[in-house]
Amino acid sequence: xxxxxxxxxxxxxxxxxxxxxxxxxxxxxxxxxxxxxxxxxxxxxxxxxxxxxxxxxxxxxxxxxxxxxxxxxxxxxxxxxxxxxxxxxxxxxxxxxxxxxxxxxxxxxxxxxxxxxxxxxxxxxxxxxxxxxxxxxxxxxxxxxxxxxxxxxxxxxxxxxxxxxxxxxxxxxxxxxxxxxxxxxxxxxxxxxxxxxxxxxxxxxxxxxxxxxxxxxxxxxxxxxxxxxxxxxxxxxxxxxxxxxxxxxxxxxxxxxxxxxxxxxxxxxxxxxxxxxxxxxxxxxxxxxxxxxxxxxxxxxxxxxxxxxxxxxxxxxxxxxxxxxxxxxxxxxxxxxxxxxxxxxxxxxxxxxxxxx
Amino acid sequence: xxxxxxxxxxxxxxxxxxxxxxxxxxxxxxxxxxxxxxxxxxxxxxxxxxxxxxxxxxxxxxxxxxxxxxxxxxxxxxxxxxxxxxxxxxxxxxxxxxxxxxxxxxxxxxxxxxxxxxxxxxxxxxxxxxxxxxxxxxxxxxxxxxxxxxxxxxxxxxxxxxxxxxxxxxxxxxxxxxxxxxxxxxxxxxxxxxxxxxxxxxxxxxxxxxxxxxxxxxxxxxxxxxxxxxxxxxxxxxxxxxxxxxxxxxxxxxxxxxxxxxxxxxxxxxxxxxxxxxxxxxxxxxxxxxxxxxxxxxxxx
Lengths: 357, 301
What we know:
The complex is a heterodimer. Chain A has helices spanning 47-55, 97-107, 112-125, 141-153, 171-188, 199-205, 223-228, 233-238, and strands at 9-18, 21-31, 36-40, 62-67, 70-71, 82-85, 159-163, 191-196, 208-213, 216-221, 243-250, 253-256, 259-260, 273-277, 283-284, 293-304, 308-314, 320-326, 339-344, 350-353. Chain A is α+β, with helices and mostly antiparallel strands. A 6-stranded mixed beta sheet of chain A has the order 6-7-8-3-9-10, with helices on both faces. A 5-stranded antiparallel beta sheet of chain A has the order 13-12-11-14-20. Chain A has a 5-stranded antiparallel beta sheet with strand order 15-19-16-17-18, with no helix packed on it. In chain A, helix 2 (97-107) crosses helix 3 (112-125) and helix 2 (97-107) packs parallel to helix 4. The longest helix of chain A has 18 residues, at 171-188. By secondary structure, chain B is mainly α. Chain B is built from 12 helices and no strands. In chain B, helix 11 packs antiparallel against helix 12 (265-289). The longest helix of chain B is centred in the first third of the chain and has 50 residues, at 4-53. Chain B is flat, with a radius of gyration of 27 Å. Chain B starts with a helix and ends in a 12-residue tail after the last helix. Classes of the chains: A alpha+beta, B mainly alpha. The A-B interface holds A 55-57, 76-78, 80-84, 86, 88-94, 103-104, 107-108, 135-137, 141, 144, 151-152, 155, 161, 168 and B 192, 194-195, 197-206, 208-209, 212-213, 216-217, 291, 293-301.
């Protein structure tokens, strides 16, 4: 069950306003043929609006959407050849599982024998073999989502769009389905656009992530690049936990709390800069241990989270700093009120243009 | 083995708890008692009385004569045929007018739909008799409709719009429409709109999405509304009497005539019993045909 041919999606200058609220603000985005791209952003960022524009459920005010060479922005949804997976699953309650999956095939005039064969194959693909005669309301949430997936891929659409399909599932099942959906994508090779507000889900599943903020694309890159080299404070804050420290320019270099910063790359932006500190990059130093960059902070709280200890401390200027330490049984644990030196390697000291907020 | 003393203690407790539960159930039943008593007195008792009357001859002996007459005399069985024809026609017109109306209402934003629904319900706030006579005024030979039609040159001589079947249908449809629209509107509101989007994404044109998804999902509401209208029409009296001009002789009109003119309680009772049995039969059959639990809703987890 391989897709006919994967196609790229080209989005140019797409804007959409609701009254005075700008849901999409001149969005440009290139989605590569056959890639798994995630639109990631907080609620109200415009990520779902953008997906709905791709599907044709929302008509933009202006802009172009091309599937391969074909301009589709004025095309009705049913002519776009897309598989769409809804957050609410949107299964047809008056049809059984097989009826739901057969729906797109029957619309396309596929002969009955082939419909039956392909429905069975699609059910096997989503590990629901033998469930064809079940009623939709007899299925669990996870099973419904699999049916919705099977229905969206059975007619081998050139593009698959998914709108937070796992948000209604519990954590364990969600994590299992993330892997499954990704494997399914790899097998089918279709271009997949996936919407989520869950950064871990985006990091887990995507070839590339487009971080959406305020109706604009803040950054498009691989999960690793997004996490390690965030383009601005918003991305740094949204992906992973971060502490921001104000950075001063001194001569050709940079300073933090009066100490020179050791870094490996700096943005060319002439404006204000922030240093992004990730909790897992902050190391608690022994009394005379050295590090590329050292920050002194007073421990406020140590939170035991099973696999890790989260240390909440305050820097000299009173701002909060979070450090994460693997919770082993051995080893010293900082206590409240203790002054601790935190070390950060130069490679992990990331500067971003702009200030937080 | 747990201690014997504790065992005895819990057993006694279980009996007391069961007693509490029983008392609570009885208390709930008591709440329904006044209504049950009223229905028994004003409904079941008279119906049973009429049922008995329908088997009594003028001489006070048991007889099937009243029922035999319904089958044998054309005037009687024709009243039944007319009743079913008029009810079916009214129901069909209600479907034709009400389905699009309910569709539009269900597609409106909830707040605007609530206002629009007030207008659908408006006829409920006026007496049925007043509304029926209002149609008489509008539809008569020199009424508003004829005057307007002739002024616009649509027709030359006054049309007979009332005291016939069309006039009766106009009045009955007007009164029945809300009964059809309300349940259908409820069913349509409960349809998950995402299902229509899903149908479109899977390649269904708006027409096919309607025929294969929306219409089947709204069907339970449509059947429920049609059933209410049809059954209410079967017993309709005032509107056919006023707007039919004696030409639309439904069972209820026949019953009224039997009692008022001929004092024939036995014959009238027999007709009432037949109509009741037919109505119950229709309800029974359709309850069996109606798809259960697979209607609107259920799309979301």
